[in-house]
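Note to self: user wants both folds in one dump. Writing first protein now.
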Amino acid sequence: MFFKIFKMNYKYLLLLLFFGLLSIQANAQVCILAIGSENSANIIDVFQLNEDQKSAFEIFKNELKTELDIQQKQIKELLENHPQSNPDELIVLAKKHKALEENMFETTIKYDQKLISLFNEKQYERYVLLCETANRTPILIVKE
């Protein structure tokens, strides 16, 4: 009996993993700066940010952290509270989890785009060159 339940759950856990990898692969082509990452200080050096850009960078980094913390809490609550007793519930859970992960990625892009929009022409050219080297699609500048 235990092995039968394990085999059933195992298949659906693989399904959850598949949905997760699909969303990661779909988003992997965008060239993100990841201003919220542990290595985000490198952005200041690589793009030689001026003082105004550094100030904006810190503000964006803090705002991003706040938004991602809220979204991470939503994922934690989903995993803790969503029913997972049958295959249909696991599929619904996977879809909800994927939507939350995509939302987190979109939030990351939004804050990267805010910083990139402050780049001067040389900084943006450097960004595009780095993206091309990594075979990634650069985020377009949106001037407000």
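First done. Writing the second protein, which came from a different request thread.
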Amino acid sequence: MKKQISLFVAMLLLGTATVFANQLPPNGNSLIVSIEKSDDLASLDLRLANLEKQGTFVELRDMQGNTWFSQYVWRKHGYAKKLNLKGMPDGNYLLSIRHSEATIVQMLNLSNGVLTVEKHQRMEVPTQPGKDLAKGK
């Protein structure tokens, strides 16, 4: 009887762990990032969830290192921003999101006023301990 109860508890715990594992975002972190082209030809919809009130730095730079947008998000669970790239020069841009869990970098291309977001040109790396997100470094 004692073995049956132990086996039941073990199966229950294993089943619970499987349910929670299936609810994690595909990137393995609790941070959820959505980067989508808007209906407008040169706009981008950025949505972040599960920030857990951690400091998060959002930045858009061109390939020469010029910053076109930056914002520090603090004490929030989520964040949403529509970025309008209309009027910006044609070329490639890097959108980076730095959070305590990871840094996500998405390549964007603006050509003739039309924005392209390529999902396969997205990189995620774990954030190194000791990074000062308030300074964007």
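Dump finished. Worth passing along: The first strand starts at residue 32 and ends at 37.
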